[in-house]
Known about the structure:
With 436 residues, the protein is an alpha/beta fold. 37% of the residues lie in helices and 25% in strands. It folds into three domains: 4-136 and 303-338, Rossmann fold, CATH 3.40.50; 138-299, Dihydrodipicolinate Reductase, domain 2, CATH 3.30.360.10; 350-432, 2-Layer Sandwich (Alpha-Beta Plaits). The protein contains 15 helices and 17 strands. The strands form two sheets. Strands 7, 8, 9, 10, 11, 12, 13, 14, 15, 16 and 17 form an eleven-stranded mixed β-sheet that branches. A six-stranded parallel β-sheet has the order 3-2-1-4-5-6, sandwiched between helices. Strand 9 (244-255) and strand 10 form a beta hairpin.
Amino acid sequence: xxxxxxxxxxxxxxxxxxxxxxxxxxxxxxxxxxxxxxxxxxxxxxxxxxxxxxxxxxxxxxxxxxxxxxxxxxxxxxxxxxxxxxxxxxxxxxxxxxxxxxxxxxxxxxxxxxxxxxxxxxxxxxxxxxxxxxxxxxxxxxxxxxxxxxxxxxxxxxxxxxxxxxxxxxxxxxxxxxxxxxxxxxxxxxxxxxxxxxxxxxxxxxxxxxxxxxxxxxxxxxxxxxxxxxxxxxxxxxxxxxxxxxxxxxxxxxxxxxxxxxxxxxxxxxxxxxxxxxxxxxxxxxxxxxxxxxxxxxxxxxxxxxxxxxxxxxxxxxxxxxxxxxxxxxxxxxxxxxxxxxxxxxxxxxxxxxxxxxxxxxxxxxxxxxxxxxxxxxxxxxxxxxxxxxxxxxxxxxxxxxxxxxxxxxxxxxxxxxxxxxxxxxxxxxxxxxxx
Length: 436
């Protein structure tokens, strides 16, 4: 059988890794796919750089539309990134009857509904394993490996940059700015790290996993997103003393009234495996009714780890290239006419436990006033820790862990506590998840 021909749009870090791994493991991949898979065209604006990487092993062009227009190209791999020209090119490739492989989580989280609908109309596949957690095959696990299960929740460390920063803050006692500078110096963070440290990148990924897990449309605009920029080293230290570690988690959970979809710094018990994922590594926990809790761990970024997922998608398409579209695995795991428009719960309706740190005057009656406010809001206290403040003997840090409560009443209680004259600084509040 003739090799399936692939056109590559963008030969940056992931593109070059894809080209090299595919070439290096060509025979192994052919034995698994049942036919060869060859990248025969590469489009990149920097033609000379692309030519230096590829040589004469593929045709190099500066215009991506030349790849899309080539009738010999069966699959287009989009590795350009972003929402703009990438969306246009993906839709044009689909309109031309090409299958698409992409690592572009931002594109799918925002425009996935449009793209998947276009692909269904043309009878082509859109594969995106590389869009979530790099080399970890989490999309395949959710779409296929766990298909017998009713998935209840997912919680993931799905941004390596922020996990590296938090690991540095904990291990080295660094402030956020120092840890970020280290991450940039070592190449773990971009010069502009906004998408990472503000939680946007993680939100793109948990949005896709939520859609696959629960059979709902992609709903990125409804996700609650908080980053790690405001985290302080003192809270990481206090969390450690209480038996917790702070991780930026993407969380999606099925509730009777809707779906939780949120990204934020989270206290996780130190005894959980996911709490011990350090550096730039990723990990995803999935809890389902039949299998229980499973954990997927590995490199969430990088040239060859991400290329591994891109090529896995190419192999899947090569196997199913001639299959009837109705017999292929649906893009979002559920049949298109079985997707339910289940609402995403507003953050005020989410139930979770909390970590609170209050800098208060060191005098009688302060704790009583605070606990009274919590009791009035029907918020139960799990633990209290008092530590001398770094600001001097007249102040103290009061750390409170609560049991699970609804976010709305907690916000009301926080406002009342903040108004107390004995509360001397903005109250720090972080969510806590047991992940049991």
